[in-house]
Design brief:
This protein is of the alpha+beta class. It has helices spanning 2-17, 26-41, 51-90, 262-273; strands spanning 150-152, 155-159, 163-169, 179-184, 187-192, 199-202, 213-217, 221-227.
């Protein structure tokens, strides 16, 4: 039966392909050819009353019903697969057990970058050693964190001579297409689309936008890398609406000094000595 069906299929396909020489509709051409054959070579149309039409309609309804059933089954299958995908997305992620290394104070080390730090201290809150008076120009400024930066409203930042890194916590599972990040030479905008921006302000100094980048780490932390226009100065803040840090208390990274030529290194060194 299968072989016979295959043979008939090939014959009918061959006939349908000839539609290119007719009105261009393969199905219409095929049906016209079949009825023409029945008219010329058989007494099909000589049947009593509407019997020929009933035979045609019976065959049509049979395969029309089969086609609709197949379409229903396919739609049901696609709906079930879509429901499974939604359920998979809604399942909470289960973190695998990890070995946590502790320091001498039983605190975890080498763990995920922490964004929320202790409240920054002001310079005047630090103990003053004998003979070391507070420079009035430093009053009100913040003490830099271990990364030569500080904590702003909704973000934490660190810096090296040539660039800044800004870390912004976002809802778990946030994807890149949900973020709105715009770098301008003197301005920065960061936020979730459709919501109030987390940062939308003038930058403390200019940046090279073509060298800036951003990424999402672990689905809940946006990390910006801002390339400084002037790679020989320390920033006192990221945006002008935030409190300044004391750049006199910045701790230069010796590992980066090899990248500077001797002249620039000398100028930078004089700044901290002075």
């Amino acid at each position: 039966m299968a072989k016979n069906t295959d043979y008939v299929d090939q014959v009918l396909i061959s006939i349908a392909q000839q539609a290119q020489n007719s009105d261009g509709n393969p199905v219409s051409y095929l049906l016209d050819t079949i009825f023409s054959f029945l008219h010329r070579k058989t007494d099909f149309f000589m049947g009593e009353g509407d019997k020929p039409k009933e035979m045609v309609l019976k065959s049509f309804e049979k395969y029309d019903s089969l086609a609709k059933e197949q379409a229903r089954i396919l739609a049901k299958k696609e709906k079930e697969e879509e429901e499974k995908r939604k359920q998979q997305q809604m399942k909470p992620k289960v973190e695998e057990p990890r070995v946590v290394e502790l320091d001498e104070n039983d605190q975890p080390i080498n763990q995920k970058k922490q964004v929320v730090e202790d409240k920054p201290k002001k310079v005047e809150d630090l103990p003053v050693t004998d003979g070391d008076e507070l420079d009035e120009s430093e009053r009100g400024k913040l003490v830099p964190n271990s990364g030569n930066g500080s904590t702003g409203k909704g973000y934490t930042w660190t810096q090296e001579l040539g660039e800044l890194e800004v870390s912004i916590p976002v809802p778990e599972g946030t994807r890149g297409k949900l973020m709105n990040v715009i770098f301008k030479p003197s301005r920065l905008l960061v936020g979730l689309k459709g919501q109030t921006p987390i940062i939308d302000d003038e930058l403390e100094r200019s940046i090279k936008t073509e060298e800036c980048s951003w990424t999402i780490e672990e689905g809940n932390l946006v990390v910006l890398n801002l390339a400084k226009q002037n790679k020989m100065e320390w920033w006192s803040r990221v945006i002008k609406s935030e409190n300044e840090i004391s750049t006199k208390r910045v701790n230069p990274e010796t590992s980066k000094l090899d990248d500077l030529d001797s002249g620039l290194f000398f100028l930078n060194l004089l700044r901290f000595i002075g």
